[in-house]
Every structure is written in C-alpha cells, then in structure tokens.
Amino acid sequence: MSAFTPKTEVKIAGVTLKNPVMTASGTFGSGMEYGEFFDLSKLGAVVTKGVADKPWPGNPTPRIAETPSGMLNAIGLQNPGIDVFISRDLPYLAQYDTKVIVNVCGHSEEEYLNVVRRLAETDADMLEINISCPNVKEGGIAFGTDPKAVERITRAVKREARQPVIMKLSPNVTDIRVMARAAEAGGADAVSLINTLTGMKIDIERRTFAIANRTGGLSGPAIRPVAVRMVYEASHAVSIPVIGMGGIMSGEDAVEFLMAGARAVSVGTAHFQDPLASLRVAEGIRAFLERKQIEDVNDIVGIVS
C-alpha cells in the first residue's frame, strides 16, 4: 500500500505554486542569505524585499525593537533600487524552481509605475504592490488607508503591469473589507494581508523612543489573531484570492489562515528566529494534511465559515 501523499499545489491568478507557502516581503531579502540554509525551490514562492525606482537609504537607527511576542521595525524600505535588483537579484532567484513575486514600493503613483514598467521586461511571476508607503503628494498619508486611493493606484498599476498584481493591504484601517473591495474594483488579481500594525515602544531608562522613527510596524505572533480575523473578513468580501500573513510561526498557524479563507500564506518575522521557518511551515502544512488524511490543501481553504 502506497503512502498517502496529499496535493499541495495552489493557484493564484493563474500562477501555480507547488505549495501555499511564500516569504513575506522585507524579511527574506531576495533569498540570497537564506539560500545558504536550504533549497528555495521547496517554497511556493519567494516574495522579495520592496523595490523602488531608485535607491532608498531607509530610516535612521535604531530602527528595530523587540516587543512581547513580536517586534517593531521602522527600516523605511531601504533598498538598492530597480537597476541593482534586475541585474543582481533576479538572476540569483532564477536558479531556483520557485515562483518570484516582486514587492514594489513608491512615494507616488509615478514611482510605482516606473518600477512596474521595468519589471514588465523581466521573468518575474507576479507583483505585490505595497500600498502602505506614504503618498508624498497627499501629505504623507499612506495609499492603503484611503479606499479611493487604493482603487486608483490599483487601476494605474494594472494598466502597466504584464504580470498578475497582488495588492498588499494595510491593517491600519477601520474596515479591511472596504479596502479589499477597493483593490478588487481597481482590477487586482489578488490581495495580501496583513501588513504590520502601527506601534510604539518607549525606553523608560533613557526617556526616549526605542526606535528613532518613534513609531514602527508591529509584527510577529502578537498580531496573528488580528490577521486571521482580517483575512477571514477580506476573503468573504471579495472573489479574488487572499494571501494571509501575520505572525505565522508553524504549519498549524498557516492552516489557521487557510481555514479562514487564505489561498496561500506568507512567513515573515519567524525568519529572524529561525532561517528555516518558511520551510518548516511548508512541511508542517503537509504533515497536517497527512495526519488528517486530507487529499488536497485546497479542500481546507475557507472551510471555517
């Protein structure tokens, strides 16, 4: 009698992933450091660190602080820019049998579009648009907190993109369903959520902020219940695929997101504790399916309703 082998393939906007596990942008670079620890081909996709149309220096230090069951970061999307990314990072990722999703950032609509146009000439499989960036033309308010801005930037990106577009949603809103519907109305092929929650930590001994930026993005297990709730709400508000993230540390955590309605998941902060985290999550999902004798991972997507 042959061993039970569940199917783990999932499809996002016509792109087939060998399993539903991705890396969360900003926690994995472009995989170069992690490729020393395991074969990136074992992941469904690698989501790169945010890429802008020109190099960004990021925020002043200190820009990371530990918190109970999580961490705050205010890196400021430091990146070398699209030219270096295309010449250095994409060729590195091309050696692996995994999908490549490029995270795109910008301070204005035109900055986003500059990157999207350049990526149209590459073999990148999908684009993830980080709309938590501040819109300099709107006084620094993030695109992702205004549904009209979400729909507008999504539509603009879709006009220029040659790859499927994933809009990465901010949780720092009153109703995530409104934002998910706005992205869908703009033509998004999928949405991913949640990005980090805005938080603050004060160093009481030094009587100052723990990070130079004052506020930062809270990630890690502390935000997982919020993320699961938002993924559930978003998946019931739109018909496009939802990619879930927020504090996933194990296969069981990932299964929770899948049951809430996520078609795939991204592993982020866990990488700072364990470089093999995303691989362990993928193996954990498979082990859960085997234990429960579930033939296809898609059978548990959105099963809790």
Describe this structure in words.
This protein has 305 residues and is an alpha/beta fold. It has a single domain (10-58, 79-200, 217-300), classed as Aldolase class I (TIM Barrel, Alpha-Beta Barrel), CATH 3.20.20. It is built from eight helices and 18 strands. The strands form five sheets. The chain has an eight-stranded parallel beta sheet with strand order 3-18-17-12-11-8-7-4, covered by helices on one side. Helix 3 runs parallel beside helix 4 (176-185) and helix 6 (251-260) crosses helix 8. The protein is globular, with a radius of gyration of 18 Å. The protein starts with 9 loop residues before the first strand and ends in a 13-residue tail after the last helix.
Quick tags:
alpha/beta; 18 strands; 305 residues; 29% helix; 4-stranded antiparallel sheet; 8-stranded parallel sheet; TIM Barrel; globular
